[in-house]
Prior knowledge:
Layout: H1 5-17, H2 20-27, H3 31-45, E1 50-52, E2 57-59, H4 61-85, E3 93-99, H5 101-111, H6 113-118, E4 122-128, H7 131-139, E5 145-148, E6 157-172, E7 180-183, H8 190-197, E8 206-209, H9 213-221, E9 226-230, H10 231-234, E10 240-243, E11 249-258, H11 265-281
Parallel strand pairs: 3-4, 3-5, 7-8, 7-9
Antiparallel strand pairs: 1-2, 5-11, 6-9, 6-10, 6-11
Amino acid sequence: xxxxxxQLEAFYxxxxxxxxxxAAEALHxxxxxxxxxxxxxxxxxxTTLFIRDRTSIRLTEAGxxxxxxxxxNDQAESELIARLKGSKTEVAGVIxxxxxxxxxxxxxIPALRKLMVKNPxxxxxxxxxxxxxxxxxxxxxxxxxxxxxxxxQTADIENVFLGYEDNVLVTSKKHxxxxxxxxxxxxxxxxKGYFTxxxxxxxxxxxxxxxxxxxxxxxxxNGYGKAVLPLHLIENEKDLEIIEPKKKLVVPxxxxxxxxxxxxxxxxxxxxxxxxxxxxxLRQS
Length: 285
């Protein structure tokens, strides 16, 4: 069986816009014709692609798989057109990466610097999210890659080990030490993880939340409290002091992406650049 291009285009447009009315307008067809194309695609594939209710639509698991297929085709086509119009030696297209705050700015951006400078037709979209939000970004195909600290056990996700983040407990040299701790948000388990991994009792008087790792660093500097922070971010900070340097929270960092039958030419370059730079800046064993 071969999928119908018009039906796939209808599905892809609805999936991107999350709205049948706007998708019909974008495709210059009636909403009835659009719905018929989606229904025929679902009939041909013998599966439901969208879950519809009065206020919203969302993709089923099968719909997410079809969306990844559509995006792969779209990206391959865009890359081909860009390369035909530009230099044959350059790579082109869009790369979307989701990661957490302690690696995106300090490691991902410099890791891709040479690649971006050499290939002006290549675009990168970098999203910084909390760890517990990252896999959903990948599953919903909002990004092509994620950097996370949990190894996926599913067969359709590839794990590329990038290194270990060593997190240490840090306080301010200028301000009086206290029993107040800083974290990203109420769902962040970094501080508890540090105490658990080092078999220590965790009894803070107060928790304060400062959104991302750079907020935590500034919070410690200004005497808001103590925080568990990545060593590679604070080792040159003169205003900070590590409490018990031998005690650490060791966190692995993985690059994850869906296993695909076809990888764009940029894929190898992205993974190799990330692996090389992370290996230079994070512990590997």
